[in-house]
Amino acid sequence: MNPQQSEPTSCDHCGLPVPQGLLDPTAEHQFCCNGCQTVYTILHTAGLENYYTVRSAVDTKSQSATTTGNSYEELDDPIFTKTWLTTNDDDTVQIELLLEGMHCAACVWLIERLPRVAPGVIESRANIRRRTVTVRYRPDDIKLSKVAQSLDRLGYAAHPARGKKAHDIRIKEDRQFLIRVAVAGAMAGNIMLLAIALYGGAFSGISESWSTTFRWYSTVLGLLVLIWPGRVFFTGAIAALRTRTAHLDIPIALALLTAGFWGTLNTIRGVGEIYFDSIAVLVFLLLVGRWIQHRQQRAASDSVELMLTLTPSSATRINDDGSTKRVPIESVESGNSLLVAAGESFPADGTITDGTTTIDNALLTGESIPITATTGDQALAGATNLSSPITLRVQAVGEHTRIGRLMNLVAQASEHKAPVVRMADAIAGYFVIIVIILALGTFAIWTIIQGPATGIEHATALLIVTCPCALGLATPMAMSVALGRSARAGMLIKSAVVLEQLSKPGTMILDKTGTLTTGSTTVADTFGDQDLLEAAAAIEKSSNHPIARAIANHFTDLPTATDITQTTAQGITGTVHNQSILVGSVDFVLRSRNLELPPNLQPKVVRLLDRALTPILVHELPSNRLALIGVGDQLRQDAKESIKALQSRNWNLQICSGDHQRIVESIASQLHIQTHQGAVTPEAKAQHIQSFKDQITTNKHPVVMVGDGVNDAAALAKADVGIAVHGGAEASLQAADVYLVKPGVTPIVELLDLARSTITTIRFCMLFSLTYNIIVASLAMAGFINALIAAIVMPISSLTVVAICTRAGKNTKPSTSPQSLEPT
Amino acid sequence: MDPMLILIGTVLTASLVGSLHCAGMCGGLMLFALGTDTQSKSKHAKIKLQSAYHGGRLLTYTILGITAGTLGQALNFGGSFIGIQRAATIFAGLFMICFGLIALARIKGLKVKHARAPKFMQRAVEKGQRLAFALTPFKRALTIGLLTTLLPCGWLYAFAFTAAGTGSPLWGGLTMAVFWLGTLPIMASLGAGIQLLAGPLQSKVPAISASAVVLVGVFTATGRLQAPEMSKANLNITDDSIPTNPDDTCPLCDPNQPEQINKDSGTNQGTDPNP
């Protein structure tokens, strides 16, 4: 290269800039120093010039060994890639991998920076709760084995995310974690014993030889703590530095390294303080905190856990010899035969091989009417066997069932980060940097005042005692806990953003049928003799009209009806106990039998109409007895109270329904809702929501739509938050953000309370963390906190924050079992 | 302030700062010292090779430091005869300041040629590397590590001068051991992958390294990096500790007042000649 050009010339060996004063225009190669020139010559003389090719590859073999030593070659097997990889339209492929060692939000930052260290990887999305990462990459640019190696080098060994192996890996990971905690605890205990002897000796006197011996023992044990259980922090910190991420492990690793180095040096010198008691206790308590957090996250909303709330945790397996045995669901496999008793939920997807029964599929399909199923028919996990025991041959179990795949969808909620989580992540990043700067400043100032020993001590105490856990940990944890609680309570939330949006009041647009009302025609009121009413029901039983079905279903012990004749859409007549009974609309009956409505019935008819009920008149000849039945789609029992509760929470409520305007008006009047619209088509509902959103200038006023998951799909998708209350879970969650399994309006109120509670918890944790850190950082910088106190205080604060977060949505009542749900 | 802390802190910091170049220069040799055997999946094997290579470097650096410290001690001793105290310290410090300033000058464009290393050193290194490649992996890694000292690395020898400036074999060895420690993080984690570092940092490395050398040179020249036993305080040499003859008479000149030399302090004290 021409040295006269302004572009800096790189050394042909090491790549660093060659100083201008050393550039030789006549030379073939440019070097920055004698050493580089010598090594360059050596390599070429020895025929090792391919080093320069290797060096330029990112995945150079000169990098340090992967943390597990795995090459992951098996992932490149064609059968494996065919099974596990998904091909996208843009010629990229995608895979979900289970990662060991992912424990906090900072790990998510690291992993999501995979494209920086693995060219060819387009996107890397981590899911902290499921410990998985979804990687999208170009197969022409990078192999899957290289992707896995890159993840491994960051500190996260990778495995396929699905199947029994994933479960085994989780168990193995848990065991290794516990071993680390146990070792750290054992070491901490022994080091503390030695520390007590040394502290005691400092006051009452100790011989030099014993003092030296104890100091050396502490050093050896302390270094073991750092090398073995404490290594996770160094691995995390190194990976963070490589990806230039402000990871939580950086200040911790810095503190451990400083204290460890200084203590070792003082042991060698024989003077000064050693800090291995603080180090060991810190490592132990931090690992305990992470273990608790790990378990909490696992329990919060693991998709398997979620699924188990809706399906049985055990099943009755039929052995080959015909005997039966109750087994845990995890041991059920495809091909097994299971006995499903009446009243029990199906534990797996399968085919009925013996028996006939009726099945309630309300959870999945939204069908409120049970279906009859017999040999050869399909049954789904989560459905309820209503009437008779049957034998089921298993086809899919666990997360491979329809309900399992649905729960997978729900469990992916945290991949869509709520703004508050993104804010917490950003703050945590700055926090780490600020703490390191303050530590350097503390070291510098105290070194000047009292010497480097004091400077290191106070800086180490500062690094140890400050805890960004509330920022980086608490927020996603609170979200996880809330999502898990909500799922158990029958509120399936697709995106964590929903919780933040619902935490502040806005406008809620409610559908009528199925939301505020029961969604089906039923008998609301009756007037008249019971035997006459039963006779009317006996006649109505022959008709398929919804009103006729409602009347027939309402009464029991029906007599026999004969000579039935139906007049379409008006009425029906028949004979019961030799009496001619006419049942129909008031006008039809009065006209047909040439009657006038008696005075005692007139106010009753008016009252029924005011209640948006349809009055049905019954007339008997020759007795001339009359009876009145009020039929309609009734308001839900909890509607009035729940609407009142929503209004008291400052929500602006509207009704938007496809039903008749007068009926909508009547419902709105009963519920004291001012704004209402009837006879609105599903398309018009969606347009109404869009135009309403356009009028709102602030995004702090959410527009929520509550309606049928299938019929109101367009409107649900348009709203800021769509809440589906009817239509089956699978279809609903395609368009809506939330699906409420339990019927009624009360779950909506519970959902809002959950959201507000969660956000309040998060804000409280942040405030607590901020206050705590300001106070302890000030004390540490002023020299009032030593490393041992810091090592005790910090994990306690971390555990406190975790404990507070586990209360997110605490008052949400769990749904006990699918059988407990009333049919819609 | 504790002299050991000053020495360790200064050398370690400077070494850490300049270790980016160490990775770039020695990366190729380290790559082949650690082997490119992708068949070996054993994590322990790789750790063993890393330990051999870096252990070899530590040993050779320490020996260099001990040698330099011994030479420095000899220089100090000789200098004291001609009235120059801490000759090695001053010389080393001045050398490093010049070294650093020349490096900075080159960056600015001043043409100052390299001082070429003796040919025999290069031949020795080449021969040694050739022999090493024929050895088993562990021995190869160890040998290549041991040969590192023979590479004509200005950065390395700058710290060797610092070691000489301590005027003590023990402290010289410690200086180079600390220097080794500073090179370890970068070399152990990145190896030859210096290109993986942030772009802006790469261009600043030469200037930062040169400045670090100047700083270490200043510390050395001002006596802050010398061995404690060489300091006045440790030798209890103060103005007050030198007793004055009340008669202001040279004790050597007065045969009636024989002096007893205090063997500990090396000073003359007037004592009773009749114990």
Task: Tell me what the structure shows.
The complex is a heterodimer of chains A (824) and B (275). Chain A has a 7-stranded mixed beta sheet, sandwiched between helices. In chain A, helix 10 (249-269) packs antiparallel against helix 16 and helix 11 (276-301) packs parallel to helix 30 (787-805). With 824 residues, chain A is an alpha+beta fold. Chain B is globular, with a radius of gyration of 24 Å. Chain B has a two-stranded antiparallel ribbon with strand order 1-2. Chain B has helices spanning 3-34, 43-81, 87-108, 119-133, 137-146, 154-166, 169-189, 199-221; strands spanning 260-261, 268-269. The interface between A and B is large, with 49 and 65 residues.
Question: How large, in whole angstroms, is the Cα Rg of chain A?
Answer: 36 Å
DSSP E strands of chain A, number: 27
Biggest interface between chains: A-B, 49 and 65 residues
Percent helix among the residues of chain B? 55-70%
Distance between the termini of chain B: 41 Å
Q: Percent of residues of chain A in helical segments?
A: 40-55%
Largest sheet of chain A: 7 strands, mixed
Structural class of chain B: mainly alpha
The string of secondary-structure elements of chain B, in order, is: HHHHHHHHEE
Overall mean pLDDT of chain B stands at 72
Strand order in the largest sheet of chain A: 15-27-26-25-16-23-24
Count of β-strands of chain B: 2
Give the DSSP E fraction of chain B (strand runs of 2 or more residues). Answer: under 5%
What radius of gyration of chain B results from the CA coordinates?
24 Å
- Major beta sheet of chain B, specifics? 2 strands, antiparallel
| DSSP summary: helix tally of chain A | 30
Oligomer classification: heterodimer
| Class inferred from helices and paired strands of chain A | alpha+beta
User: Regions of chain A with pLDDT < 50 over 5+ consecutive residues?
Assistant: 1-5, 58-67, 815-824
Overall average residue pLDDT of chain A: 80
Give the overall shape of chain B, derived from the CA principal axes.
globular
